[in-house]
Write a structure and sequence with these properties.
Blueprint lengths: L3 H17 L1 H7 L7 H19 L9 E5 L5 H8 L3 E6 L2 H11 L7 E6 L10 E6 L8 H12 L2 E9 L4 H10 L16 H10 L6 E11 L2 E10 L1
Parallel strand pairs: 1-2, 1-4, 2-3, 4-5
Antiparallel strand pairs: 5-7, 6-7
């Protein structure tokens, strides 16, 4: 069972993404004009999505993939077009509804099942690949690692997730961000030093059979996030 701190933060994120920021998030993930701040975030997210997709096989036919925290569904659709059977899940019914609407019926060679709920739900079944793009960055490091370890028990190939790297620049940017109107602020994240994160991952019993491979940091204006790939030993 997820920790109490995970569940508390999950509730806060539901409120933010399904109520407070729905309009802003809808616009950010479209091709509509946005402010300069949001434009840097949009560019950063696009670069991160491209990175994570590049780490997946180009041919995903016969593979089952979990898009954990799918948002408006861009990554899920691309994975389906490579042939994957994708389970795309998010806490926000509004965002999942938007993802389903944008996707239409064209999933390429694969298929997408859109779900509202928790990415850690065991009933989702087993997967060949799990991708969690910017969905764990809001949780404290220990809870994020616990979530990854829980997913590892049901994953046979690779797990790709992002974290907010603790850097002086990121701290300064977040302090500056508090000066902007609320509509331009990102939800609170929990930065963690890469060395500490790797230590927590190595020490997690549920990840004993896994090793960290590729990593890539994306910095674009007010967007900073780092991808990490875990594969079975």
């Amino acid at each position: 069972m997820p920790s109490a701190t995970y569940q508390t933060r999950r509730g806060e994120l539901f409120t933010y993404f399904d109520r407070t920021a729905v309009e802003a998030w809808t616009r950010l993930t479209s091709d509509a004009p946005v402010s300069g701040i949001r434009a840097t975030v949009r560019a950063g997210r696009e670069a991160m999505r491209t990175t994570l997709l590049a780490w997946l096989p180009s041919d995903l036919r016969g593979s089952r993939l979990l898009d954990a925290g799918c948002g408006t569904g861009a990554l899920a659709i691309e994975a389906a077009r490579r042939g994957a059977d994708v389970v795309a899940i998010d806490l926000s019914p509004t965002l999942v509804g938007l993802a389903r609407e944008r996707a239409g019926a064209d999933h390429g060679a694969g298929h997408v099942t859109w779900l509202v709920g928790d990415m850690l739900e065991p009933a989702l079944g087993s997967f060949d690949h799990v991708v969690a793009m910017d969905s764990l960055i809001h949780y404290r490091a220990a809870d994020a690692v616990e979530a990854v370890a829980g997913l590892a028990a049901r994953t046979g190939g690779s797990m790709l997730f992002t974290f907010a790297p603790r850097t002086m620049l990121l701290a300064a940017m977040h302090a500056a961000g508090s000066l902007f109107p609320k509509r331009d602020r990102a939800p609170a994240i929990a930065p963690v030093a890469e060395r500490r994160l790797r230590h927590l991952l190595a020490a997690a019993p549920g990840l004993a059979g896994w090793r960290a491979e590729r990593t890539q940091r994306i910095a674009s204006g007010f967007y900073t996030s780092q991808a990490l790939e875990l594969v079975r030993r």
